[in-house]
Amino acid sequence: MQILKIIRILFRIAIFVLLLILAINNMQTTEFNFLGIYTLRLPLIVTLGIFTFAGVFIGMILNYSNNLSLKSELKKLRKELSQTQSKQNQPTSN
User: Fold this and answer.
1) Any bridge partners for residue 79, and if so which?
2) Three-state SS for 32?
3) Residue-wise pLDDT tens digits, 27-75
4) Phi-psi group of 31: left, alpha or beta (phi > 0 → left; psi -120 to 50 → alpha; rest → beta)
5) What backbone torsions phi and psi does residue 35 show, to the nearest 5 degrees?
6) CA dihedral over 39, 43, 49, 52, signed as positive or negative
7) Are 43 and 29 in contact (CB under 8 A)?
8) Could you please report the per-residue DSSP string of 47-71?
9) Residues 6+ apart with CB under 8 A from 43
10) How many whole angstroms separate alpha carbon 94 and alpha carbon 90?
11) Fewer CB atoms inside 10 A, N or C side of the chain?
């Protein structure tokens, strides 16, 4: 188990170093125009980071709303199942 932890840590360090090199090599300024009204000048890596985090955030919100609907459906189905089981377990009188 210790070896896996060490490998994970080394992998994370390697990814961090690669992203750091990417950031240092992409410091040129880019312009982001929003509907021709607003222009934002940022380094390329910052622009990419903003849009990456925005995409992750939007994905998390959509996933959360999907999970809520699935949980409500699961609750409804469990209720139906318990009602069906209770009807089957009732003794029949002759």
Assistant:
1) none
2) strand
3) 888 888 888 888 888 888 888 888 889 999 999 999 998 898 899 999 9
4) beta
5) 55, 25
6) positive
7) yes
8) HHHHHHHHHHHHHHHHHHHHHHHHH
9) 26, 27, 28, 29, 30
10) 13
11) C
